Recover the amino acids of this structure.
């Protein structure tokens, strides 16, 4: 098997036509793979102004250059589309085996277009692709759906599917594979809008064509990882104790971003989760197996089990409503995975409603008779189900916090950037992280340019003061470009801290593609920058500009309350100054449009005309 | 033996902005103990209740990780000891 197949599969669900194409040489050189391929095709094929839930929108599922090889932690895959939640370009990353299986079937990416007349699923093998009736699967949860497809096609089948939330067009529905999700931005909603329940791939594992050069690099990678404490610790704990640190830093956002520390944080620690751990799981070719499965063994949620929760979900189903029952958090995680919901937006949206209830903006009669007082986790779980099924108040919340807030006239309490709910790091105490939310191409994502320097104390490219603002614009850009270049691979973002990235990674890309330049980190950074700029150009073409690069008013006006830990009293103060500096360093105009000079420099001259119209 | 312990910037607010402390010690364990004598508020950020280094704290000496058995590793005159969090957020 070649690790970059150069092949894409195009499936038109309106006509039932399936075609195989080769990725053209220039695209392969300029964009390398993964996220690069995704934005390249999305930009070229989805016209500006396309309604995200119309048949004109496209859904691209793509693996990385290294997927399917025995390189560690690179079998991630992503869903790329125009988001029904944000209206921007969107990429949502997931794990498990699906990315490797797509490669084994012979493809770097699938482009799904059109809309099926009735529910269907796609069955893909190395020999062909069929579009089949999914009427009997419609309405089924993601677990049942995957079980049925495995029984139908055997053990060598891997599936990516949606649950009832995606069918019901909840705007933040996920695509689920195993129990890993492409969670954010409503990629599952786009899949639902196309009447596509699942994509099942039946293929044989194959690693036969690994060159000696690649094998040597893998040995080097494994040697580095074996003695790297970050890897060893991640293998042991996954992300289940990140809240121990973020609570101490005062950046664990509680009660819809009013506090930076959970009053009961000692009940939510990694050690508490450890007591309920029943197993581990991971992604294809990754020794970390960082997914930690939990089982509730007593109390009201006895029997609830999830392959997680990860840090973001630990946060989203505890802090927004000041819940301190980790059992309820596990139960909520399980429902979200079954229903196919993004846990971050679901929890954040519920936190928003609890605040409106506290303030009397919503009354008991408006929320289906639920008691939404802080700490009430039974109501939280009821809301999760209502959102997935668009039942009662759930129908409004399924539209996402920003739209729900606009309907209710409660915009001040909606904590989002460009429609994407803020995740589990308060920007007032981690400002480069916050400015990444502001300038990311997908809204408030924690993983589009994660500020390791602020949160972990990483000293590359330089140490950072987490309360400094405009002077860290270079760090925000550094993190965003680094993430984009890692996502051509597609490496798991956790592995960025394991000592082998980016040097060994670049050499691996060169070994697999035969493009020597990819071993040069300067060149690879340019690839990352090119991808980031084309995504920005996509958004500019959709009408996004400086005014959308913003933060919720609460973050820029209400002082952070941390109960005495560092960060007390902080607000984000220098948004304008930051944007001036950031745009200047990016080579963009004052309105945040990539300049002609920058586009030419990045070999993106073809989008100049679109930018001139903006 | 004079060793410099660099205080991570994210703890700067706990130590009035002090960036580094020179301590007299022979092992990393002694260096960190000396650090917490200067700044007791750092004790529970570095050590668990049993006095073990937290799993999510990585110590590097002259930019080389001291893992494993960090606390018993010897240090030399003029060494620089760095502290970092190695949790993963996702
Ligand atoms: S570190 Fe965890 S999420 Fe990342 S590839 Fe490995 S198992 Fe998957």
């Amino acid at each position: 098997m070649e690790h970059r197949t150069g092949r894409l599969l195009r499936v038109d669900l309106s006509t039932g036509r399936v075609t195989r194409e080769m990725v053209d040489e220039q695209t392969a050189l300029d964009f390398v793979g993964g996220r690069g391929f995704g934005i390249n095709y999305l930009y070229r094929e989805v016209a500006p102004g396309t309604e995200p839930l119309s048949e004109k929108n496209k859904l691209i599922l793509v693996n990385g250059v290294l997927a399917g090889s025995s390189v560690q932690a690179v079998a991630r895959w992503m869903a790329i589309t125009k988001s029904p939640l944000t209206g921007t370009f969107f990429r949502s990353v997931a794990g498990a085996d699906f990315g490797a299986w797509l490669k084994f079937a012979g493809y770097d990416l699938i482009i799904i277009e059109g809309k099926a007349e009735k529910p269907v699923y796609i069955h893909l093998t190395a020999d062909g692709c069929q579009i089949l009736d999914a009427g009997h699967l419609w309405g089924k949860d993601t677990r049942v759906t995957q079980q049925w497809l495995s029984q139908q096609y055997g053990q060598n089948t891997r599936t990516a599917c949606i649950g009832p939330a995606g069918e019901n067009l909840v705007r933040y529905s996920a695509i689920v594979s195993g129990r890993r999700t492409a969670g954010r931005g409503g990629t599952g909603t786009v899949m639902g809008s196309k009447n596509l329940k699942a994509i099942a791939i039946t293929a044989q594992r194959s690693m036969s064509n690994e060159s000696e050069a690649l094998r040597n690099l893998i040995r080097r990678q494994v040697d580095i990882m074996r003695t790297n404490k970050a890897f060893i610790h991640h293998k042991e704990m996954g992300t289940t104790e990140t809240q121990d640190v973020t609570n101490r830093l005062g950046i664990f956002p509680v009660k819809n971003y009013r506090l930076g520390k959970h009053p009961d944080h000692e009940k939510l620690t990694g050690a508490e989760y450890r007591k309920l751990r029943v197993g581990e799981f991971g992604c294809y070719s990754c020794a970390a197996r960082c997914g930690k499965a939990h089982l509730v063994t007593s109390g009201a949620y006895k029997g609830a089990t999830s392959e997680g929760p990860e840090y973001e979900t630990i946060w989203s189903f505890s802090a927004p409503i000041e819940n301190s029952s980790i059992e309820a958090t596990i139960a909520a995680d399980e429902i979200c995975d079954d229903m196919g919901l993004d846990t971050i937006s679901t929890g954040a949206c519920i936190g928003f409603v609890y605040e409106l209830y506290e303030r009397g903006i919503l009354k008991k009669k408006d929320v289906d008779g639920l008691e939404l007082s802080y700490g009430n986790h039974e109501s939280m779980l009821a809301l999760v189900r209502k959102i997935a099924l668009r039942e009662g108040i759930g129908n409004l919340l399924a539209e996402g916090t920003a739209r729900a807030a606009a309907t209710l006239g409660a915009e001040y309490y909606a904590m989002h950037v460009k429609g994407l709910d803020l995740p589990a790091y308060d920007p007032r105490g981690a400002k480069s992280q916050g400015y990444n939310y502001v300038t990311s191409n997908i809204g408030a994502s924690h993983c589009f340019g994660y500020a390791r320097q602020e949160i972990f104390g990483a000293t590359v490219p330089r140490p950072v003061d987490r309360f400094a603002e405009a002077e860290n614009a270079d760090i925000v850009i550094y993190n965003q470009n680094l993430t984009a270049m890692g996502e051509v691979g597609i490496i798991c973002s956790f592995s960025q801290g394991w000592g082998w990235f980016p040097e060994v990674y670049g050499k691996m890309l060169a070994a697999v593609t035969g493009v020597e330049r990819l071993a040069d980190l300067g060149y690879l950074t340019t690839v990352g920058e090119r991808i980031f700029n084309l995504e920005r150009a996509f958004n500019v073409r959709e009408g996004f500009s400086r005014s959308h690069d913003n933060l919720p008013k609460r973050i820029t006006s209400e002082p952070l309350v941390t109960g005495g830990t560092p960060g007390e009293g902080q607000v984000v103060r220098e948004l304008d100054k930051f944007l001036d500096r950031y745009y200047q360093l990016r080579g963009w105009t004052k309105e945040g449009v990539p300049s002609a000079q920058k586009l030419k420099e990045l070999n993106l001259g073809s989008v100049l005309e679109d930018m001139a119209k903006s | 033996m004079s060793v410099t312990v660099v205080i991570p910037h994210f703890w700067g607010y706990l130590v009035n902005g002090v960036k580094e402390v020179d301590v007299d010690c022979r092992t990393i364990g002694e260096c960190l103990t000396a650090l917490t004598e200067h700044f007791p508020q750092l004790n529970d950020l570095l050590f668990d209740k049993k006095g073990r280094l937290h799993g999510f704290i990585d110590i590097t000496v002259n930019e080389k990780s001291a893992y494993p058995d960090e606390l018993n590793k010897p240090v030399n005159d003029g060494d620089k000891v760095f502290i970092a969090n190695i949790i993963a957020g996702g």
Residues A 73, 95, 282-283, 286, 288-290, 492, 494-495 surround iron/sulfur cluster (CB under 6 Å).
